[in-house]
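TASK: fixed-backbone design
INPUT:
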């Protein structure tokens, strides 16, 4: 898992750097050479009993979040990955973590929730991601969406990936923040 995550971080840095030089979204060879091998490594890792161990659940949440993140990158290249099996697994692996972990200021937890939220629009778990993200934002006292984006960039994020979905999800979370917590993030 460590090796696969390290490769994902290197890929993310490389893509951010490469985007300053050229727009490669129509270069399927780039995707085949760089994105597919990292996706394959993440898909080959299996955790079966996440509900028994919060540490494994945390690793599984990050692994599935990384798969969904790469699915967003692949979609930008014109290749779709069905997310049907990953969204429920992501939700379950987040729930299986120790509740005290969910109350910590953990940037990867926010990132995983955001990835789950932006990739779950057509899934029944979507409302859960909206609610869980709003709860975490209130708990961590975020006051601006710029702060949230800074956290996402600090974990893994590339401009233009899942941008439309992020904007829609941001609106849903903002509505949830107001409805449930009478809180506003500007």
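OUTPUT:
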């Amino acid at each position: 898992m460590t090796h696969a995550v390290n490769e994902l971080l290197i890929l993310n840095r490389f893509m951010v750097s490469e985007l300053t030089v050229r727009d490669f979204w129509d270069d399927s060879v780039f995707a085949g050479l760089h994105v597919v091998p990292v996706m394959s490594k993440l898909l080959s890792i299996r955790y079966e009993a996440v509900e028994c161990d919060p540490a494994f659940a945390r690793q599984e949440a990050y692994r599935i979040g990384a798969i969904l993140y790469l699915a967003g990158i692949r979609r930008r290249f014109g290749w779709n990955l069905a997310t049907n099996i990953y969204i429920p697994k992501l939700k379950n692996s987040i729930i299986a973590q120790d509740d005290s972990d969910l109350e910590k200021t953990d940037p990867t937890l926010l990132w995983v929730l955001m990835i789950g939220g932006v990739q779950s629009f057509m899934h029944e778990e979507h409302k859960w991601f909206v609610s869980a993200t709003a709860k975490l934002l209130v708990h961590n006292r975020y006051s601006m969406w710029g702060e949230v984006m800074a956290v996402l960039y600090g974990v893994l994020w590339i401009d233009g990936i899942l941008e439309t979905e992020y904007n829609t999800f941001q609106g849903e979370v903002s509505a949830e923040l107001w409805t449930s917590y009478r809180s506003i993030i500007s």
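COMMENT: The chain has one domain: 2-181.
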